[in-house]
Amino acid sequence: MTAVATVGNKRRDAGDIVGFAPSQKFIDNLQRVVVDLIELQLQGKQAHWNVVGTNFRDLHLQLDELVDFAREGSDTVAERMRALWAVPDGRTDTVAATTSLPAFPPHEQNTAEVVDMITTSIQAAVDTMRSVHDAIDAEDPTTADILHAQIEGLEKLAWLIKSENRKV
């Protein structure tokens, strides 16, 4: 037996379907997230190359995990922007000019200093995501779900890294 469409269900005309069109504020908010994730990736690698001291190897490996997570996150958010026909800007001059993360030093740092600096940078990136979350969620809960995953993952990494310095 074939199901019959109920009254009220009918095919729509193709011309009536427009799709989601994000606001400029929505796009600007996602751009802020992309920039901070790119900067976090770069800072994580800078720390990875120049960390020295106690528990070097463990922290060195944790920093690689952070770099991978931030790189994948920036790619996910940038590709979400492209799926919505927005153009992400991940050029180094844009990242340097617009990131909200504190500057990271260019020289060797001991493990305790790196733990403190990199977890501060992680928290800054998460703060950016939290500050734009509600506006993004109001326009597109699907994109907000991407932010949820990024926040959850970064907060977990911050906890794991910060535990290197924790005293009981």
Question: What are the SSEs and their pairings?
Answer:
Elements: H1 24-50, E1 51-52, H2 56-83, H3 92-98, E2 109-110, H4 111-139, H5 141-162
Parallel strand pairs: 1-2
Helix pairs in contact: 1-2, 1-3, 1-4, 2-5, 4-5
Short summary:
The chain has 168 residues and is mainly alpha-helical.
Considering the chains and any ligands shown, give keywords for the structure:
two-stranded parallel sheet; 168 residues; mainly alpha
Q: Could you explain how this protein is built, in words?
A:
The protein is mainly alpha-helical and 168 residues long. Helix content is 67%, strand content 2%. The chain has helices spanning 24-50, 56-83, 92-98, 111-139, 141-162, and strands spanning 51-52, 109-110. A two-stranded parallel sheet has the order 1-2. α1 runs antiparallel to α4. It is elongated and about 70 Å long. The protein starts with 23 loop residues before the first helix and ends in a 6-residue tail after the last helix. The model has no long low-confidence stretch (mean pLDDT 93).
